[in-house]
């Protein structure tokens, strides 16, 4: 797949970069690899419709458009692996060790520093186009009651949002050259998975239990050892309590 970032669209204020990108796709006026960047995002969304608000001008809020993805729906988690690891790679370059909290949040020291929302256009059971929304906390220092951190809080250095953007694009393109179905992506996602092989508390439809994350099943669901069973959970079926 061709690299991203040859075209960057900068917006002062928009409800959601993913919404804006989706509308451009509908009009047929968008090239593969275009990055939509917003200074202010007034209606950002997280997983399961959660609101994700950031202070204007202090964070990286972008959407990346991928065309010609040609990926089976069964393999869609590959996009999550690639994007999560691109963020991990970028943070490593500025000496911030991070981990991936399944499925697609990036944590530093137990606090969220980045999140991802991927929305796909399908033809039958094949993903043709993808919009990858990314929010990375850069210079923001106050998050209210949210359990969050930022690049500034971790390094005590104020950084240019443009500098962050271009560095992330390079990391994303390096991962893209490995291919969406690369075994390396699968292996390194697991190596960076938060709480892997550690006993902790979860909650499912049956209540609270102690379990151990073993990894992922073939479609990216979380595999947890629960008593004498190995269970696979989708995002809406499990909650982390520790």
**SS content category:** alpha+beta
Strand content: 35-45%
* Integer count of domains: 2
CATH architecture assignment name of the largest domain? 2-Layer Sandwich
CATH class of the largest domain: Alpha Beta
Overall pLDDT metric: 94
Tell me the Rg in angstroms: 18 Å
Name of the CATH superfamily of the largest domain: Bira Bifunctional Protein, Domain 2
Helix content: 10-25%
Number of helices: 5
CATH topology assignment of the largest domain? BirA Bifunctional Protein, domain 2
Distance between the termini: 38 Å
Poorly predicted parts: 47-52
The largest β sheet comes out as: 7 strands, mixed
Shape: globular
**Order of strands across the widest beta sheet?**
1-2-3-7-6-5-4
How many extended strands?
12
Order of helices and strands: EHEEHEEEEHHHEEEEE
Describe this structure in words.
- The chain is an alpha+beta fold and 242 residues long.
- It has two domains: 8-191, Bira Bifunctional Protein, Domain 2 (BirA Bifunctional Protein, domain 2, 2-Layer Sandwich); 199-240.
- It is built from five helices and twelve strands.
- A seven-stranded mixed sheet has the order 1-2-3-7-6-5-4. A five-stranded antiparallel sheet has the order 11-10-9-8-12, with no helix packed on it.
- The longest helix is centred in the middle third of the chain and has 17 residues, at 77-93.
- Residues 47-52 have low confidence and may be disordered.
